[in-house]
C-alpha cells in the first residue's frame, strides 16, 4: 500500500486561512466550492495522465494535487517549489545511502534516523513556509529506503516513480490553478492591512478616552504573525520586485506601533494620577488619535519642546508623552504611505519620517535546545522501531515504519503533539473503512474512467471544502491521502483482501506506535515551552542591560517575536511590558557614550542593577517587582540626565521614564533634590 502522500498532509491550508479569514461552522461559500472543484478537476487530470502513462503509482499524482493546492496563488507556487526541492533531496539521499549500506540494515536504519532527525531539526528552526523544504526530505527518504531494505535493487525504481508521479501532480495542479485564475496574495494582504489598522483605530479611541482594554491589542499581535507568512508568499505572487521590501518595511513599523501605543496608555494613566492632562496635551492626544482613525489629515503634527522640565514630574511625564505622540504620528504617516506604495507598487513618495535604524529586522527567537530534543526523540524512535521491525521480519512493517515517521515528523514541532496524533490515528482508521468500501463494494462496478471520477466526486468535493476550515483541515487532507493509498489504483482493478488488511494493520500500527512513543518521550505540554520562552525573554533582557548589543534591528526583532510567541500560548500574559523594557534598555545603551561622564556612571550602575533584576525574573519565570534600590538608581540617573540638553540626553531621559513606569507604576513622584547623591 503506497504511503507517499501521507507525509504531505501538512496544516498549510487551515493555517493560511485561519490567519486571514475567521472560519466557523457555516455553509461553504462560492470561493470554497470553487477551490474544491478546481482541485478535484486537477486531481482527476493528474490521475488520468498517470494511468495513461502507466506510471507505477497513479494515486500519488492525485494526492500530490491536494497537497500543493492552496487558496492563494503565491502560497501554491511556494509549496510547489519547496515540494520539488524536498522530494529531489530525499530521493537523492536514498540513492546515496542504500547501495553502500544495503548489506547492513541496522546501519541503514541508523543512517535514516540521523537523516530524518537532522532535517527535522532544520525544519523547526525555520518558521516560514520554507520549512516544508526541510521537513519533506525527513520522510521522503524513509519512504524510499524502507521498501527497498530487503530489495535494494529497487531503490532507483522507487525513487523514480515517486518523482514522476509528483511532477505530474504538480504540473496538473498549477495548470488548472492558472486557468482558474486563483486568488493572489496581494488583495488578501491589503484586506488584512485594512482590518489591522481598523483595530489600531479602536485602540487609539480607547487611548483617547482613557480606557485600557486589551482585546484588540491581542488580535493585533496575532495578525502580525499571519502577515509574516503572507509576505513570504507575496514573493511568489507578484512580478514587482518592490513588493516584499515594501511589505517588510511596513510590517516593521506596524510592529513598533504596538509598544508605542502601550507606552502612551501607561503615560496617560500616570498623568491622570498626577492631576490629569493639561488642555493642550488632551488636544494633542485627540489629534493623533483622529489621524489613526482617519478622521483627520496627516498634516497636523505634535509640537515638541526640546528642553524637558527639570523638577516637575507631571511636566516630565507630559514632555515624554509629547515625544511619544510625535513618534506615533511619524509611524502612522509612514504606514499609510507604505500602504499607498504597496497599492501602486512604487518606491516614489515622501521621505519616511521614522528612523529606519530603530526598526525591527526579521530575526526570530529559536530555542535550539528544545528543537534538538524534539528532533532527537524522533531519530531515537526510528532506531528502536526499526530494530523491532528487523527482528520481527514483518514485510509490511516497512509501511508501519513510514507512517510512524510521517506522524512524528508532521507534528513534532507542536507543543502538545499527542492530541493531534490521536486524531491522526482516528483518521487512519476511518480511511481504512472508507477505502475498503470503495475498493470492495464500489470499484468492482466501475468499468470506465468517467465512472471512476463519479465515484470520487462527492467525497473529494466534501473533503476539499473541509480543507479550508482550520478545525477540519488536517483530517480532511489526511482522509484524501489515506483513502487514496488504500485503493492502490493501477491500470486495471486489483483487489486483494489479505494484502489490503495487512496494509491497513501496518498503517494503523505505525500511527499507534508513533502516538505511544510521543506520549512516552514527551509527557509535558506547552507549559515547558512557555516557561523556556519566558526565561529566554528575561535572559535576553539581562544580556542587553549588562552587555548591550550592536545589531539593534535584530535585537528588537527578537523582542517582538518572543512576545508574539508568548501570547497564543498564554493569552493572560500581555508581553508588551517586556518589549517596552527591552526597547528602553536598548535606547539607554545606544546613547550611553553620548552623555556626560557623571550621568554615564549613574546609567551604567542602573543597567547593572537592571541586569541582575532580569536574571532573577528569568529564574522566577516572570516580571517581579524589583526592590526600592533600583527605583532610587532610576531617579538619580534621571535627575542627572535632565540637567543636560543634548538630543542623546533627551532620548535617554525618555527611556528612564519608561523604565520607571513599567517597573514601578504606582511609585510616588520622584524627588530630584537628592538625585546627585550616591545610592548606598
Describe this structure in words.
There is one protein chain. With 680 residues, this protein is an all-alpha fold. It folds into 3 domains: 338 residues, no CATH class; 156 residues, no CATH class; 149 residues, no CATH class. It is 72% helix and 0% strand. It has 24 helices and no strands. Helix 10 crosses helix 21, helix 15 packs across helix 17 and helix 22 packs antiparallel against helix 23. It is elongated, with a radius of gyration of 29 Å. The N and C termini lie far apart (76 Å). The N terminus and C terminus are likely disordered.
Low-confidence runs (pLDDT<50, min 5 residues)? Answer: 1-24, 675-680
The tally of domains stands at 3
- Radius of gyration based on Cα positions: 29 Å
Category from helices, strands and their pairing: mainly alpha
Order of helical and strand elements: HHHHHHHHHHHHHHHHHHHHHHHH
Q: What is the helix tally? A: 24
> Which overall shape is indicated by the principal axes computed on the Cα atoms?
elongated
Question: What is the strand content?
Answer: under 5%
Largest sheet: none
User: How many strand segments?
Assistant: 0
Averaged pLDDT = 84
Helical residue percent band: over 70%
Separation of the first and last Cα atoms:
76 Å
Précis, in short:
The chain has 680 residues and is mostly helical. The protein has helices at 12-20, 30-52, 58-68, 73-101, 105-125, 131-145, 155-179, 185-208, 215-234, 243-273, 279-293, 313-344, 368-392, 397-411, 417-442, 449-466, 473-487, 497-521, 526-547, 552-569, 576-591, 597-620, 628-641, 647-663. It folds into three domains: 4-183 and 364-521, no CATH class; 185-236 and 243-346, no CATH class; 526-674, no CATH class.
Amino acid at each position: 500500500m503506497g504511503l507517499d502522500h501521507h507525509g504531505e498532509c501538512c496544516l498549510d491550508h487551515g493555517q493560511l486561512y485561519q490567519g486571514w479569514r475567521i472560519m466557523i461552522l457555516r455553509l461553504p461559500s462560492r470561493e470554497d466550492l470553487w477551490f474544491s472543484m478546481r482541485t478535484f478537476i486537477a486531481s482527476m487530470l493528474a490521475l488520468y495522465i498517470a494511468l495513461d502513462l502507466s506510471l507505477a503509482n497513479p494515486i500519488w499524482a492525485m494526492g500530490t494535487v491536494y497537497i500543493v493546492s492552496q487558496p492563494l496563488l503565491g502560497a501554491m507556487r511556494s509549496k510547489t517549489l519547496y515540494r520539488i526541492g524536498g522530494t529531489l533531496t530525499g530521493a537523492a539521499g536514498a540513492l546515496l545511502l542504500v547501495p553502500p549500506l544495503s548489506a547492513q540494515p541496522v546501519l541503514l536504519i541508523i543512517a535514516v534516523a540521523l537523516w530524518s532527525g537532522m532535517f527535522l531539526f532544520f525544519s523547526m528552526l525555520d518558521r516560514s513556509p520554507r520549512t516544508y523544504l526541510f521537513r519533506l526530505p525527513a520522510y521522503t527518504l524513509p519512504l524510499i529506503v524502507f521498501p527497498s531494505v530487503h530489495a535494494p535493487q529497487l531503490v532507483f525504481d522507487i525513487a523514480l516513480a515517486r518523482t514522476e508521479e509528483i511532477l505530474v501532480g504538480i504540473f496538473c495542479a498549477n495548470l488548472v490553478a492558472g486557468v482558474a485564475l486563483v486568488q493572489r496574495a496581494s488583495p488578501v494582504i491589503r484586506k488584512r492591512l485594512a482590518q489591522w489598522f481598523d483595530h489600531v483605530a479602536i485602540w487609539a479611541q480607547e487611548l483617547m478616552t482613557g480606557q485600557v482594554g486589551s482585546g484588540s491589542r491581542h488580535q493585533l499581535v496575532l495578525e502580525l504573525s499571519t502577515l509574516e507568512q503572507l509576505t513570504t508568499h507575496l514573493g511568489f505572487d507578484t512580478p514587482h520586485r518592490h513588493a516584499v521590501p515594501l511589505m517588510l518595511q511596513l510590517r516593521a513599523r506596524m510592529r513598533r506601533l504596538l509598544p508605542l501605543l502601550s507606552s502612551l496608555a501607561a503615560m496617560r494613566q500616570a498623568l491622570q494620577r498626577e492631576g490629569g492632562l493639561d488642555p493642550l496635551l488632551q488636544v494633542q492626544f485627540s489629534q493623533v488619535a483622529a489621524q489613526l482613525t482617519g478622521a483627520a489629515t496627516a498634516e497636523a503634527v505634535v509640537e515638541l519642546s526640546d528642553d524637558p522640565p527639570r523638577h516637575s514630574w507631571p511636566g516630565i511625564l507630559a514632555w515624554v508623552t509629547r515625544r511619544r505622540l510625535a513618534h506615533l504620528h511619524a509611524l502612522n504617516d509612514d504606514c499609510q504611505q507604505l500602504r499607498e506604495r504597496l497599492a501602486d507598487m512604487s518606491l516614489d513618495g515622501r521621505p519616511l519620517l521614522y528612523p529606519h535604524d530603530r526598526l525591527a529586522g526579521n530575526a526570530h527567537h529559536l530555542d535550539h535546545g528544545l528543537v534538538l530534543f524534539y528532533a532527537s526523540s524522533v531519530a531515537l524512535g526510528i532506531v528502536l522501531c526499526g530494530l523491532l521491525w528487523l527482528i520481527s521480519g514483518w514485510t509490511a512493517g516497512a509501511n508501519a515504519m513510514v507512517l510512524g515517521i510521517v506522524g512524528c515528523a508532521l507534528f513534532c514541532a507542536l507543543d502538545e503533539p499527542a492530541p493531534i496524533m490521536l486524531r491522526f490515528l482516528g483518521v487512519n482508521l476511518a480511511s481504512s473503512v472508507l477505502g475498503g468500501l470503495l475498493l470492495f463494494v464500489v470499484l468492482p462496478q466501475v468499468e470506465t474512467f468517467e465512472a471512476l471520477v463519479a465515484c470520487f466526486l462527492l467525497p473529494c468535493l466534501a473533503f476539499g471544502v473541509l480543507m479550508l476550515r482550520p478545525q477540519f483541515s488536517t483530517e480532511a487532507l489526511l482522509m484524501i491521502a489515506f483513502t487514496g493509498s488504500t485503493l492502490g489504483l493501477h491500470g486495471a482493478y486489483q483487489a486483494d483482501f489479505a494484502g489490503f488488511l495487512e496494509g491497513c494493520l501496518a498503517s494503523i500500527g505505525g500511527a499507534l506506535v508513533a502516538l505511544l512513543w510521543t506520549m512516552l518521550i514527551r509527557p509535558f505540554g506547552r507549559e515547558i515551552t512557555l516557561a523556556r520562552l519566558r526565561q529566554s525573554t528575561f535572559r535576553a533582557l539581562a544580556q542587553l542591560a549588562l552587555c548591550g548589543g550592536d545589531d539593534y534591528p535584530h535585537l528588537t526583532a527578537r523582542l517582538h517575536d518572543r512576545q508574539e510567541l508568548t501570547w497564543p500560548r498564554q493569552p493572560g500574559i500581555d508581553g508588551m511590558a517586556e518589549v517596552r523594557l527591552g526597547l528602553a534598555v536598548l535606547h539607554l545603551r545606544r546613547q550611553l557614550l553620548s552623555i556626560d561622564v557623571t550621568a554615564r556612571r549613574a546609567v551604567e550602575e542602573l543597567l547593572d542593577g537592571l541586569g541582575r533584576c532580569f536574571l532573577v525574573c528569568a529564574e522566577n519565570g516572570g516580571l517581579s517587582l524589583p526592590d526600592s534600590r533600583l527605583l532610587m538608581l532610576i531617579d538619580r540617573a534621571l535627575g542627572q540626565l535632565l540637567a543636560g540638553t543634548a538630543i542623546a540626553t533627551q532620548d535617554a531621559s525618555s527611556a528612564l521614564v519608561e523604565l520607571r513606569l513599567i517597573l514601578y507604576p504606582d511609585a510616588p513622584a520622584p524627588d530630584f533634590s537628592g538625585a546627585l547623591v550616591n545610592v548606598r
